[in-house]
Every structure is written in C-alpha cells, then in structure tokens.
Amino acid sequence: MINKTVKAIATVLLVAASALWAPAQxxxxxxKKPATKMEKAAKEARAKAAEKKRxxxxxxxxxxxxxxxxxxxxxxxxxxxxxxxxxxxADAIIAKRPHHSKLDLVTKGIVxxxxxxxxxxxxxxx
Length: 126
Prior knowledge:
3% strand
C-alpha cells in the first residue's frame, strides 16, 4: 500500500512539474506592429541625412585632392611652403621625380615618416 501511495505522489508531482515547465519553454511570438507614418517619415529623414553627409564628405575629399600640391609639377618655392619641408627636401623631391604616389616621399628617403603624416593630405602624385 505504501508503494502505491509513493507512486501516486510521484505521478502527481511529475504531472505538476511538467505542467509548470511547459509554458516557460515556449512563449508565443508577438506579431510586429506595422510602422506608423511618423516612424516611416523619421526613418526616411535619417536616411536622407546620412546620404547628404556622405555626399558632403565625398565632395570635401574631392576638393582636398584638387587643392593638393602635385609633387611631379610643383616648383621649389611651392614645395618649401609645405610645413616642415626644407630647401634640401624640396631639391630631393624635384630630383627624384617622377613620383608614382605620395608615399614615395618616405620610400625614396626624402622626408621622415613623422613629417609625411603631416604632409599626406596636402600633396598628391598626379
């Protein structure tokens, strides 16, 4: 009789535990509510602002490249106007032409790497 009672209690506990566990395992997915007109408009406005910002950056980059001093055509006086460029460096830039990229200033040993960091936005090898 005790054996039957223990089995009955164990069965009740097992059923109760499985009943409590089942809802915790799966939670029904809630359907996404459709975006409101204001949310859509705000998203479009953010996208337009990001596009304008990207275009402005591209324009600024293009203008900076256009204003950059061409290492292959610049005169000694123009090269000396660059910050940190000495007479000797300007002569070396002219003597070691043509430059295929502005990085040639460092690879050809014309300017030190630290000075190049300050010049790289101001020069170009066109």
